[in-house]
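Chapter review: from sequence to fold.
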Amino acid sequence: WRNLKYPHYFIEQSNNDPTKNTLEVLNEAYTNHDAPHQWNVRFYKPGEIREYQIDIDLRNGNVGEYERTLADTTFLPSVDADSALIIAESELEEKWGFNNSLYSLKEIKSEEKENRTDHEITFQSDEFVGKARYLYRITIQGNSVGSVYKMFWIPEEWEREYEKNTMGSQIRLIYSILIYIVFTILIFYSVLKLLKTSDIPWKYILLGAIAFISIELIDYINESTAFMSGYDTEKLVAEHVVSNILDDYAMGLAFNGLICAIAILAAYMMWPGMYSSFLKKKRKIYLKDALTTSLVACGFIAFIGLMNNLITVIFPNWISPGVFYYQPSETFFPAFGEFVIPIIAGTPFWALVGIILLYVHRHYF
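The token string follows.
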């Protein structure tokens, strides 16, 4: 979700206005005007300061926004502000669902480039909930359309209040940081202490870390759909590729490998004999307990889902802020990233973390 403050404002103002229905306001805003999630498609040529970006609505494949980037030195025949306004209105009405009778001109900003004049034109609607308005922002580069954006406007005073850090949020942040620091120190202290008395099978610890890294590498590759999104066309493609691989992939894998190795090592020393329980001759006695635990976990998940649905039915105007945190999967194989990786890597890792935290809690608290 690109910005949570807008739906937050819409919900707040709808609840304060008995003539407004929250769901209808949100549906109107994010169906007929803007899109909550959009694919960004970029067209460019390496070495040229000229590119096109198109935002496509995930739900229906319609083009939601458009931007053309040109060098400041690019020549285009220029027009005055009045002519640019005519071009903008014609373009928006013809291709972007703009109704001139429902919008008024908010502002025009003109900028003189080296070989052309650009005009940024903003149209605004009437207030549709609280003081919120719909906006269309279009840029005329020379005598042609350079960009089209659809957005919202809300009062600046409300935005400042929304973004202000409260005493409670600062306390929660400090408390969270302290908890992380304390537990990290205790975990490292416990590992160093146990190393003095434990006989460590380093070979298997290393193999376990490599297994986690291998899964992480597959996940990295699956999530590399936006690998070239930050590419600066003024640079060489090879420079961008090498920099990304070294900075993001190599450093990330090295850090994750170290963390996984520490987790495997710590769990081995804190729960002696844990890994031997997976041997074929020993694991049968644990299958019944494992099945029972899995069924209980599934039951809890189903119960939580039932309660969420029940609350929505009883209070139709109440919308949990958590629903706006959904992000579409930017991967080659979404199901693989959403289900397979968490099962084969996430579950074992957090099980090890749980063992470590249990040990620390028992010994120091």
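Two observations follow directly from the output. The mean pLDDT is 86. The beta strands are 38-44, 50-57, 63-70, 103-112, 117-125, 133-141, 144-153.
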